[in-house]
Design brief:
Elements (H helix, E strand, L loop, with lengths): L9 H18 L8 H15 L6 E7 L7 E3 L5 H10 L3 H8 L3 E3 L9 H9 L4 E9 L2 E9 L12 H50 L3 H15 L3 H11 L5 H8 L1
Antiparallel strand pairs: 1-2, 1-5, 3-4, 4-5
Length: 255
């Protein structure tokens, strides 16, 4: 874990925020959906360490009510700190997510709130930590900062990491909306591509049964449900056979 320079200049803070913002603006189209949240979190954690004095490492997590829990760490030793909290349900991350405000462990030598977390942290050389939650709609990002010194992170929740976390949560919510819109467009495109064959199949059913368009569509839908096949597949089969040999099945489904 890296020990930050106590006198890190303000220009480095500004540079860190600008770097994260620039990357966020172009990240979504280039990263596969499965890896996008982890990439966002990784960049958040790295930039937070760069712009926080006395910070030796950071952990970022996100939850949106699903079973998936993407995380990112700036050093492998910090992975155990996430695991012990998720396994026990105790520690700064669960508390911060529940109460929606920063959770500060000023001196883990004296803090007795979370024995398992405390033991793992001290074993890793961590003396103090602060976990900051950032909420956007139903999505919650947590950013945990760690230090080798007691009381070194008291001002962190009010510093530049606040802006970084808010930006990260907003970007991740935007990513999710963007992906959902793409999925909807794909589904709409598939529906439009299959519409002509469904219309043809309805025309054939109307001719065979002498029924209207609504009744013909109902017949196709029932066949789809009964055979556990997509409506487009049923329609393609009807068009291919021109309805031949299906008269009895059509008639039975209209009774």
């Amino acid at each position: 874990m890296r020990k930050a320079d106590r006198n890190e200049p303000v220009t480095d803070v500004q540079r860190a925020f600008g770097t994260y913002a620039a990357r966020s603006a172009h990240l979504a189209p280039d990263i596969p959906e499965a890896g996008l949240p982890a990439r966002r979190l990784s960049e958040l954690a790295e930039e937070a360490v760069r712009c926080t004095a006395e910070c030796c490492g950071a952990v970022a997590t996100v939850t949106d009510g699903t079973d998936e829990r993407p995380t990112a760490v700036t050093h492998p030793d910090l992975t155990a700190l996430i695991s012990v909290q998720l396994r026990s349900g105790e520690g700064p991350i669960p508390v911060a997510e529940e109460q929606g405000s920063p959770v500060d462990a000023t001196d883990l030598l004296e803090d007795r709130r979370w024995p398992q977390y405390r033991a793992v942290a001290l074993d890793s050389g961590v003396r103090s930590s602060v976990t900051i939650p950032f909420r956007s709609a139903d999505l919650t990002v947590t950013l945990s900062l760690y230090s080798f010194r007691a009381g070194a992170l008291a001002d962190a929740p009010h510093g530049p990491v606040r802006a970084l976390g808010d930006l990260a949560a907003t970007c991740m919510l935007r990513d999710r909306s963007y992906r959902a819109a793409l999925t909807e467009l794909d589904q709409l495109g598939a529906a439009l591509r299959t519409r002509p064959v469904v219309d043809q199949a309805c025309g054939i059913v109307m001719h065979v049964l002498g029924c209207d368009a609504d009744a013909a569509f109902t017949v196709l839908r029932r066949i789809s449900q009964a055979t556990n096949r997509k409506l487009s597949e049923v329609a393609s089969a009807v068009v291919e056979k021109r309805g031949r040999g299906l008269e009895r099945e059509f008639t039975a489904l209209t009774r």
